[in-house]
Amino acid sequence: MITENDVRHVARLARLSLSAEEAKTYQDQLGRILDHIAELKRLDLACVEPTAHVLELSSALRPDEPKPFAGAPDILANAPSREGPFFKVPKILAAVFLAAALLAGRAACKEPSPKALETMHKGIAAYEGARFDEAVELLGKALELRPGWKTASGFRAMCRWTTGEVSSAQADAKAALSLKPNSAESHVARGFARFVLKQFEPASEDFEKAAGLDPRCALARFGLGSVFSQRNKPKDALPHLNEAVNLAPQAAVIRVVRGAVREKLKNFRGAVEDYDAALKAAADFDYAHLYRGRVYREMKEFAKSAEDLTAFLKRNPDHEEALYLRSNVLFQLGEFTAAVMDLDRLIELNPRHGLAFANRGIARIETGDRLGALADLTKANGMLPERAGAIEEHIRRLRAEKPPELPVFDEGPSGVAADALLPGEQIEQPEEGKDKGERRRRRAKTSEEETPEPPEKPAPEAPGEESSPGAEEEPLRIR
């Protein structure tokens, strides 16, 4: 795309004076001409023989036979204007030919090569398939083939932001901000750059323009849905994400974001459906296991939740949210020692996690470790002043060697502080001589009772990332 400076440079060479309006007009006209030429250059003409004409014509010229030269005066006699032994033409024609030649040369230098375009499109496909590291690598190669390419920078910004490379993502996004889009793809690239920099209104405008230019552009709809989700408007996000899924049903990244939105709207079955599709399309996408395990926990399908969380922790052993969620699930399955082990590791990673101390204390009661339980609850009491009354009641009953009938402490669904591990769940102290199976049956019966829904979760910084009250939601980031 030529700039206004290019037009003015050529005008100066041709000794032409252009007004601001004329410069804009010529910039647009010449740019469209060069864009058309660029499209022609992208065609694969390897199997097409060079031709001087689109039609197969035999020469209509007379035979090339030498004849006596009539002389310059006879030839110049047909010219409308002449100066000495030369044809005389208006200066503007010479300037136009010179300008076209110069602009074509400059545009040819800026146009990405077919190899660069192919590499960038492979990078975009890798992003859609949730192969984020591969996408970053391919887009980096595209930028090596075409240094300063703002479209590739915009896409790489989104990939880096998704993997948590915030500073690198912001650098790419800033480089892409000056992009002047001329296609749906370049509008999406600038929209991603603006999204990374939290410029949500301009980002929405770019995604809208991309959808207008190409109604089949799934990433345009995906971008619009992501903006609404980021602004904590899941009901507005869902129609755009539904359309994006219809356009690209195999795009794992789109499925995951729609799953997160459905999860917010309490459509847990729909969320599981999306996470299933994401794992089918991208089996190595670990975070889909984390998200699906989190949803299964909300659905009280604890065995499935434990399976997904374990699959995620095999490759991400120190992920705090996954350790916390699995400890909750293992507790519900009666695997108290395993729950304690997860909480041990979580506390080692984050010694200020008060709820981990509180829950480990409750789990230790079930394993018979009363001293350890007392130490953990005492520690939690000092770290969670807002829960002091409930924790002190645990401690009082534990010291009196009476079975505590208070619920375990938990952050509740998806990280929101709640009063119980699961709504209505009552965790009891083992009684001497009581059958362990009977205790489990009683717990299962209690957990099935109708209970009020827990508080709505606040917008997390990212799906799959540890949540904290008041954090901003960033629905695409994967760390």
Q: In which order are the strands of the major sheet placed?
A: 1-2
CATH superfamily of the largest domain: Tetratricopeptide repeat domain
* H-E string: HHHEEHHHHHHHHHHHHHHHHHHH
CATH hierarchy class name of the largest domain: Mainly Alpha
The low-confidence runs, each spanning 5 or more residues with pLDDT under 50, are 412-479
Q: What is the total domain count? A: 3
The total of beta strands comes to 2
Mean pLDDT over the full residue set = 81
What is the helix content?
A: 55-70%
Note the beta-strand portion. under 5%
DSSP helix count? 22
Biggest beta sheet attributes? 2 strands, antiparallel
Secondary structure: elements and pairs:
Layout: H1 4-13, H2 20-41, H3 72-76, E1 82-83, E2 86-87, H4 91-110, H5 114-128, H6 132-145, H7 150-162, H8 166-176, H9 184-196, H10 200-213, H11 218-230, H12 234-247, H13 252-264, H14 268-281, H15 286-298, H16 302-315, H17 320-332, H18 336-349, H19 354-367, H20 370-383, H21 388-399, H22 436-447
Helix pairs in contact: 1-2, 1-4, 5-6, 5-7, 6-7, 7-8, 7-9, 8-9, 9-10, 9-11, 10-11, 11-12, 11-13, 12-13, 13-14, 14-15, 15-16, 16-17, 17-18, 18-19, 19-20, 20-21
